[in-house]
Design brief:
Two copies of one chain form a homodimer. Chain A is built from twelve helices and 15 strands. The first copy, chain A, is α/β, with parallel strands linked by helices.
Chain lengths: 341, 341
Amino acid sequence: MRARIGVNGLDHNHVFEIVDRLVKAGAVAAAHIQEGGFLEAFEGWQTESRPMTFDEMLADDSIDIVVTAAIPNRRADIALAAIAAGKHVVTDKPGLTTMAQLDAIRAAVAGMPGRPWTVLFTERYENRAIAEAVRLARSGAVGRIVHVIGAGPHTMWAKRRPDWFWDPEATGGILVDIGSHQVDQFLTITAMTAADVEVVAAAVGNVASPDHPAMQDIGSMTLAAPGVVSDHRLDYLTAKGLGTWGDCRLTIVGVDGTIEARANVDIAGAEGAEHLFVVDAEGTRRVDIGDVVVEWGEQLLADLADGGERLMTQQHAIDVTDVCLRAQGAAGPWGLAGSTS
Amino acid sequence: MRARIGVNGLDHNHVFEIVDRLVKAGAVAAAHIQEGGFLEAFEGWQTESRPMTFDEMLADDSIDIVVTAAIPNRRADIALAAIAAGKHVVTDKPGLTTMAQLDAIRAAVAGMPGRPWTVLFTERYENRAIAEAVRLARSGAVGRIVHVIGAGPHTMWAKRRPDWFWDPEATGGILVDIGSHQVDQFLTITAMTAADVEVVAAAVGNVASPDHPAMQDIGSMTLAAPGVVSDHRLDYLTAKGLGTWGDCRLTIVGVDGTIEARANVDIAGAEGAEHLFVVDAEGTRRVDIGDVVVEWGEQLLADLADGGERLMTQQHAIDVTDVCLRAQGAAGPWGLAGSTS
């Protein structure tokens, strides 16, 4: 039986990436609710998907998976209702925006088999350079990992952003929203849990969005765990001359070498995306990621079929979210008072 | 009249770089004391330099400049004696290792004209990519600067290091010693003083030097100043496959673009050192630094001649040292307790 997808949440264009992978892996885009900024595009793309209310979707036993890329602060309620109705949830990151929501998810999945709540951290699951960097680090290729450094600059694209983009109550804030990718990478590289991690420092600010005073267009966080420090920076300041949506980097420092991924672009260097470099005792080299397969869709469907946790554990999705919420909650202002921003 | 140099401090090989630039700029290597790990090499190189005791050097009115690359915790005493004798001091970084030493330097130079105490931050003054990155940032090329990120990984070269290298009492610790380059860059880029800067977080550790338990082979610091955050990482973990002594990077994020310098190497990319990249509204490009001239030697001699502060202000040398000492003093352990290092 092919798994059937119902979509509630067409507010972020990640919905296309998520549904596309699941359909290519064998699922059927069966139903969608009729609201959200990308409704028209979705209906023109998945022409066989049936319009439905969310209540109808929840009551429809033929729907196995609820996909959501709703406004982030609405994702938890959608997930909770779907889990209660026996569905598997695949949510765009961030999975939610408050610790109360996370507590409700914890309670909902407690004791359930498998992984009812999947948060898709696309910067690792969709990017082969990041995925391979993480795999190499975990394999011991550069020895014990002592420092992880991430950068996630994004393009603002102010004119094409919906109102909720500018509201940290809606997005969860920059550390929760786009910071979740980097926390996912850090915890995966080091095999750490949220309980292992302390937020050492965090800051968020508005340095280039005077029309949207609540907007957090820059942020950073420093995390510590046993034997390892993790520094992450984020912003929406990428200049349009970059030619792509961002310039995400991941540097993994081991005691025997360094792994560096340039996820989106090798500025003024090699063509295309997904660049991976290793420096170790043997030398300095590009690693070909051409044989790395993006297979999260297949892994997710396999997990759904047998209650496995190939793609990620339930604990991992919860732990990443927990660390992000703690960093966001601890965040002070950007720079010191006297800022001219 | 050509300026005449006396060298007291042949313990770090930076002495060759410093003397070389000064001689090429027109100074004379006139005298040196007969001790230090690089004595033999120095005597074979500057064959006309006369051996002298430091007392003789101080009493010799023909000596204008005292150069020191002594063991770092001895540099302040050398500088204080030289300043008291009316000499200009050019010291390898770090200029000193304790706040008491810095207070003594402050007192010694107070009210003196010009800049009696020069600390040479070679990662900017000797590297044209870093120098040009800093100049571009100050010129407004990428708008107001909101984030500065530095990386200073170095090679350990354990077998060829002197005993003092492993002793943070001697070196001042990793944030003071090699971190001083990055603090120099941050303060120069932002035109900030030490009074503008708060140390938000700092950590140092020993992750790969079990034979030298006091050694700090890794460190990081996060600084904040009005409107800007500055993150810096340092280590001695560079694998020998890199092919050079380190892989220093400087990323400057402005509200209108990003400047990135790769000081030593463009791993698996373009040949040679000194790589500079700019991303702005116009595009993504390498910046040719072929026309940038390393001229700190000439600037220093001009400053010496007329009491100017072309190369740096006295306040800047003091401010960089002050921030580094504060970060070093605030540094906690690397990662959380439970480290397996």
